[in-house]
Amino acid sequence: MLKSVSTLEFALMGLIQQKPQSGYDLRKTFATTAMRHYSDSPGSIYPALRRLEARGWISARPRRTNESENARRRRVFALTEEGRKALVAWIERALSPQDVQLRAHELMLRFAFMDGNVPRTVACRFLADFEREHSIYVAELRRQFEEMRSNFPLHTGVLAFESGIVQMEAQLSWARRARDRLREESQ
Fold first, then answer.
1. N or C: more exposed end of the chain, with fewer CB within 10 A?
2. pLDDT given for residue 1 in this prediction
3. Is residue 74 exposed (0-12), middle (13-18) or buried (19+ Cβ within 10 Å)?
4. Quick check: is 80 in a domain?
5. Residue 179, helix vs strand vs coil
6. pLDDT tens readout for residues 88-126
7. DSSP codes, 52-91
8. Cβ of 45: how many Cβ atoms within 10 Å?
9. 88 & 114 share domain
């Protein structure tokens, strides 16, 4: 059920879950926040909203803007109960090694939408799984790095590879601190 849904669609659902919004409001969010790596193009957002509406995961109601008597009607989208269930299923989906290796932005998006949608224990479990999978991946990257370094000392490609490892280690460190903070706050 969730495989054919794009990350953009889940991002839209998560934002709509926070508060009902129009397509224009959602485009502004993508254009002006850290979510800007998602397209704020009407050619991406409005088709995604139509797909979500066709699935029955969002519903729309008209809202007049305050511009003038003949103002254009904007549709304000809200998450349906089915949409909320789909969003929660995506948020709670188990982490895989491929998620850590290829979908880091999606993992952070899932984590960002946890509050208000799932219990705090789910967020703590997510961070523990995140830490475990990242630790395994970083250890493998470190092994590859040492092999590369022995074959190509001070090669710029090796240094670039090391940069990626350092970034992964920073994410791992963040996950540990975040998990500890959530546990402390829950007590």
1. C
2. 52
3. middle
4. yes
5. helix
6. 999 999 999 999 999 999 999 999 999 999 999 999 999
7. HHHHTSEEEEEEE-SS-TTPPEEEEEEE-HHHHHHHHHHH
8. 21
9. no
